[in-house]
Amino acid sequence: MLSYKTGTVMSVINVIGLxxxxxxxxxxxxxxxxxEYYANLITQRxxxxxxxxxxxxxxxxxxxxxxxxPKDFGVFDFIVVGAGAGGSLLARRLSEAxxxxxxxxxxxxxxxxxxxxxxxxxxxxxxxxSWGFKTTPQKVCExxxxxxxxxxxGKGLGGTTLIHTVVHARGIPSDYxxxxxxxxxxxxxxxxxxxxxxxxxxxxxxxIDPDYHGFNGPFAVENYRNSSEFEEAFIAALGTFGxxxxxxxxxxxYGYGRSQLATHNGKRNDAFKCFISDxxxxxxxxxxxxxLVTKVLIRNATAYGIEFIHDNNRxxxxxTKEVILSAGSVGSPQILMLSGVGxxxxxxxxxxxxxxxxxxxxxxxxxxxxxxxxxxDRFEEADLKAVIAQYLQGHGPMSVSQRTVVAFYKNSxxxxxxxxxxxxxxxxxxxxxxxxxxxxxxxFGIRTALLKPKSVGNLTxxxxxxxxxxxxxxxxxxxPDDEESIIEALNFMADVAESEPMKKFNATIKDDxxxxxxxxRSKRYWKCYLRTSMSDHALHPIRSCKMGTNPxxxxxxxxxxxxxxxxxxxxxxxxxxxxxxxxxxxxxFMIAEKASDMIAEDHGNIINSSR
Length: 611
Fold this sequence. Notes:
FAD/NAD(P)-binding domain, alpha/beta, 16 helices, 7-stranded mixed sheet, 19% strand
C-alpha cells in the first residue's frame, strides 16, 4: 500500500491524529451535541484515511454502453472545466454577465465538515477528496515501494483548495515583472496587482501593509488567532539570523510573519465555498459535479464543446463562445492531449489524431519540500474537549494546518527559500506508529521548500484511454544545484533548531532515520535524508500548459488562449511560466480575475459590475 510520504511522520504533530488516539477516554463524557458530532465525524474520517486505498485510474467513470452515441447535455455560452481555484472564481465572474449562460463542471462532489478543519489536511491527502495520482520513480521517494510517490490533487467542488495547507502567500513583484520580461505583455506586477486586491478581503488581518491588500473581495483571509511559546522562540531564532518581521504579502516579502490563512472563523475557505456558494442559484450558472471531462470537441481548429462521463453515461455539452480548462496542472494537459492538442510524437504513440502540435506537459514542474522534527519536553497534554470547543469558536489548533509562522529568505545562491514552523503546542502523541516507534516523545517541526527550483519534469499520457491516469514525472532534485540548495536549507533549519532561543525547550533534532549511519549534518547525511520520508513534493505544480509567445515552447498566449485553437483557453496554475515566491492558489485567483476581464473584452461584454 502506498500512502502520502509525509503522512505518518507529520501525524506527530497532527491534531486529528491525536484526537483519534485519545477519543475513547476524552469524548465519552461529552454532553454537547455539536462536539459529539465532530468527535464521531473525526473518528470515522481518520480511520477511513488510515485504511484508504487510492484508485489507480479514474474510478467510478466507467461507461456502461461504450458504443452508444453520447447524450446531448445542452448548449452554453461558456463551459468551465474544473471547480478549483481558477474555475470557481472564473465561473462566478462570467455569471455576472446575466446574458451569458455558464456551465461549471467538476470531477468530484461536495465536501463535508471534516474538510473544513484546516488541521485535517494531512488526512485529506489520502481520501476521496484526492484523485490518487502517483509519480514515476523519484529520488525523494526511495524509501517508498518502487520509489514511487503519491501525488495528491484535489477532487471535488473546490479542487485542491479542499486539501491544501491554507497558507496565502502570493509572491513578490519581481516574480511577475519577470513574466513581462519574457514578452508576456500585461503580466507585470503593476498589471496584475489590482487583480490580487480584487478577490481578497483582508479586513481582519493584523500587522499588514494595507496598501497591498484588498478589503472588499469575497475571499476572506485571517491570521491564526492563537500563539505559543514555540512561536515566540522560533521568531526569536529567526531574528538571530537577521530575518525580521514583515507582511509577506506586502511590499517587503523577505522576512517572517504570522501565517495569513485561507480560513473564515477558523474553517477552511475553499474556492467553491468562497466564490460559488452565494451565487449557486443564479439562473445563468449551472453546476455539474461528479463528471469526468474526457476531451474538448474541436472542429476546424475551433473548440465547440466537451465530452464527459456522468453516472456511467457519455454526454456532449456545447459552447457557443469558449471552452475554458481549469482542471489544474495535471488535469488540463491530460484533457488537451486526449483532445489532439499536444506533442505530435506523444499523440502518435497513442493513436490520437493530431489537431495541434504543442509542447503540452513538457515542462511540468513542482518544488521540493522537506521537514525536520524536533523533540522537546515542554508540551502539556491537550484537553481535547477544549480543543474542539476552540475550533467551534473559530480558533485553536484545529483551525490551522500547523504552519503558524511563515518566513521567506534568500540563500547563498540568491534563490528564495521558505521556512515554516510546524507548531505542535499542546499535543502529545503516545502511540508507537509515529515518533519513529518511541513512546512518549513530544515533537514540533520546521519545514522548508525551495521556491524556484531548476529541475523540470514532464507529464505524458499512459494511453488514449481517458480513464487512465497520466504519467507524472516530477524529476524533483534532478538538477544538482537544487540538491545543493535544499541541503543548504537543511543546514539553516538545523541552525535555527539549535539556536539559543530554542534551547530552553531542550529541543533535539530527531536523528532516528536510516541516515544516522552517517555523521550528523554531513553532506552524506543530508543526501541520505533527502531520500527518506522527510522529503516530499510541495504539491505546487505549474508550467504544464505554459504561457508564452512562441508555440514551439509554450501552450497558451498572454491572453491564455491555446495557440492555434480558437475559443479555447486554460486558466489555472499550469499556465504559469515560472514559479513565484509564495504559494500557488493566490496566483491562480489573480489569473482567473484577469482572465475574466480579458474574456469580457474579447466578447464585448461588461461583467463584474458589482465591484
